[in-house]
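Table S5 (text form). Sequence records supplied for joint modeling of the two-component complex.
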Amino acid sequence: MTNLQTPPLDVAARAEGARKTYGKGENTVHALDGVTVDFKVGEFAAIMGPSGSGKSTLMHCLAGLDSLTEGRVIIDGTDLTGLSDKSLTTLRRDEIGFIFQAYNLVPTLTAEENIRLPLLLANRKGDEAWINRVIDAVGLRDRLHHKPSELSGGQQQRVAVARALASQPKIIFADEPTGNLDSRSGSEVLRFMRKVVDELDQTIVMVTHDPVAAAIADRIVFLADGKIVDEMRSPTAEKVLDRMKQFGN
Amino acid sequence: MWKVALKGIVARKGRLFLTSLAVILGTSFLSGTQIFSDTLNRTFDTLFAEVFADVNAYVRSSNVIETDFGAEERTLLPASIAEDVAKVEGVQSAIPQVQAYARIIGKDGEAIGSEGNGPPTFGAVMTENDVFWELLDGRAPANDTEVALDESSADAANYVVGDTVRISAKAGTRDFKLVGIAKYGGVSSPGGATFALFDLQTATEFLGTPGFIDAVLVVGDGSLSDRELADKITASLSSYKEIETLTGDEITKETQDQIGAVLDFFSIFLRIFAFIALGVATFVIYNVFSITAAQRMRESALLRAIGASRKQVTRALLIESAAVGLIGSAFGIVAGIGLSRGLKAMLQAFGVDLPSRGLVITGSAIVTTLVVGMIVTLIAGVFPARSAGKVPPIAAMRDSVSEVVTSRKSRFVFTVLCFVIGGASVIAVFAGAAAGILGLGVVAIFMGVLAIGPVTARPLAMLIGAPIQRLRGVTGTMARENAARNPKRTARTAAPVLIGVALVTAVTVLAASLRTEIRNLIGEQFKGDYAISVQTQGFGGLSPTLVDEVAKLSSVEQATSIGFATVKIADKGRFASVINPVTAAGLIDLEMIKGAQADLDADGVLVSEGQSEKLAVDIGDTVEAMLTDGSELELTVRGIFDNGTFTTGGFVVNRELFADRPTSQFDFAIYIVKKDGVSDESARAELGALVEQSGVGKLASRSEYIDDQAGQVNQLLGLVYGLLALSVIIAVVGIVITLLLSVFERRRELGLLRAVGMSRSQVRSSIRWESVITSLIGAVSGVILGIALGWVIVRALDDEGLKSYTLPIGGTIGILILSFMIGVIAAIYPARRATRMNVLESLSAS
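The corresponding structure-token record, covering 1095 residues in total, follows.
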């Protein structure tokens, strides 16, 4: 396809000519229709687009949760194409962090155990200093031994962000992280994510349809009908809202 | 992963409880039967250890005829041997032993102790200064008009010293004066048996054979070891033929082993039902794991998304299964203690009265239960755990998660394979293969039916639900749809009901066929107006003198008796039927194929067709035989009769064979024809008076007798029903658990329905009908399977003489009604839970 060379070192994730189709013949749906995009290390990027634009599919494929019909995804120099379920699992465990819209935590484990879960799964000790930094950043040291049900929605989501950070991944994917939260809790989580990128040098790729949420990112990639249609740097909520309105027309 | 798994268990106590409940029920029967058997074994071991505690040696004949089920009958010894033993150096006392059948008649005219199924009823010897019997009141019997009783029999019948006690034994029925009450080795009644005690002379004449004793119990003076004493006695008895002397320890051990063998047989019988219950429970556990695994799909997907491998997710669920198995089995052991008591009570209710002292819980019982419980739970957990591991990580982001459905093709292939194996083994058995293969076939057919369950569940639910929908309107529709919407779950819930109902139906069919068979046979072979009979199981019965007294009555035209005796024929101990061919003419019809019943002479034998083929003998041939007095003789085959008869063992001999021999035989029935012109009332009155005087036996008209004999099947049927009941209870619990989990899963939907105006009673009704539909899916398939199974078993038993297949229509309908009620009962609690939910809370639940 276009560029088969290894991407430069400052690229955390890359999609090349990514194509994802569902169905056959006349009923073919192109969820992704040739997307090529880079996400740089230390960047807080947002993917936006109307419903059905393919933004979630793009993220799932980038994160190794779903596979492409055509094209390839490279995470930290590793081509995901053709990787076995086992290698994909290891990659997700060690290189990628996840934040979902809801059902993010294992309800039976405490906040701290949830944070350490990826390490537990990998049977790794982890970097204690790093974990301490993460826990401090979450700011929930006094609630570490509480179950998720005893935390507010915003607190739960902050724990989820902390868990995504625990194994020092190369990149964190967030799927509508504020979708289930009220605006106050939402901004609390967003501020925390910003802090993680700024202070802990992490890379976050976030899918959202909320202009306020997207405005906190460094860069926004706009998707429509499976294609990248625009990009915006240093966004504000107003600018994003204006751009989104164009999709309606 | 351990942490995740174990935390998961602790956090979901409700689910843990529900899953463990199935394990507890399944394992409790297993531990219950084991505790029961161990306790019984220990009781008897202690008992015989006590009985023989003071015995240093035991002299008996070495000539023995062993019959099935570990029973044996030994040649008697001449009574004089006791005096010779007493002369041996080192012997303090030599006590002649006579122990035989005797029944104590109570003040109300009824014999005490249970007939046939209870502990034995004995007559024995008691001497002054008896080594075993310790007098509590009065003195030892001294002549042929006196008797002593064991304490518990005297208590049971309210007898005190000075009363007149009627006793029935081999020589007939006589009245004795009660002169003493005694207890035995510290217990009021050994093993619950009843004892009537006589002086030696009376015992040999009344209970056994005059001049003969069973054995000699020897108490040493302490100068020799038991072994030395036994050897010395054997040496000094060289003039007697076929004598052996055992030490006290040897006779104790041998007696314990003999009873142990009988108890083992019984334990295996109980354990079969324990394993059936465990199999049913496995299905319930499997179902609960499947449902909860499905409900946790999102959690499993989350674990997969953040980097758990398939193996790790599967392992977490397996660890949980193992823990549930361990915890459930531990409680199962505790529950088993209670169940062992229940088992004893139930057997008692069916007339099997067993003694028990204390409670014995062996380490092996605990280990077996824990290991079996864990294995069963792990097996039940494997498939759900594997499918949980297969959940795609992306499912963590989807709104709804559905159960992973395995391919229908492999399901069909498996089912067809099972049916082919099942059908082939059935055909093989019909064609003459070993009956054991039938077991394999039955298991294969069950597996096939269960495997196809998820495919048939939906159409069945729609079919059974149709009338309910018409009857109940919208709640009926919802019940029907709910039962049909997850066919896999419905099938798994119905499976335990299916297994239980199929077994109950098969047993009912078998029992009905047996009853018909017995009716037909007795109807054809017994031609009299009346019968006097006892239910014996090979020990004791009617005195052989009774038939002569009956024949003398003025209202009786003809009377004949049928009895049994232990005879060794062709090197095998058998219970042969004993008849008097002269008086039997016209009263007993053996349906001869060759020869005539009347040809049976004193040293002749009539052989069933099956036995004649096995032994390859025909009319005129001789077979070698040995009687219990040790005499060896040749019996000439005088006729061959049809297999299907109510005689025992396939051999019939003449009563005269035993005349003037020291052997014991009893009658189990007397058949009577009344004189012409004598009214039924007067015949009954005269016969009734004689039966009452004799104290044992039951007078019945021809039709009553046939009903009684056929009804004996019901006793066993009741016992089997009782033992299957636990499997049925587990099936009910299975429905309850499934409904509870379904209600929890659908709480959003239920909240919505409530919000838009569904009343509480409508919610209850819809859950109740869903439960009924599920239960009936299992019941309908189970009844069909059970009827087929019953037919196969009856066909397979054709060679054993079972020829009448009977479909019990009333019983089958009863089973279906019961299944309907099971559905209603199972729904009570889940329905209540469903209506108690807060509408708003259930709506906001996620």
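Note: The longest helix of chain A spans residues 183-200.
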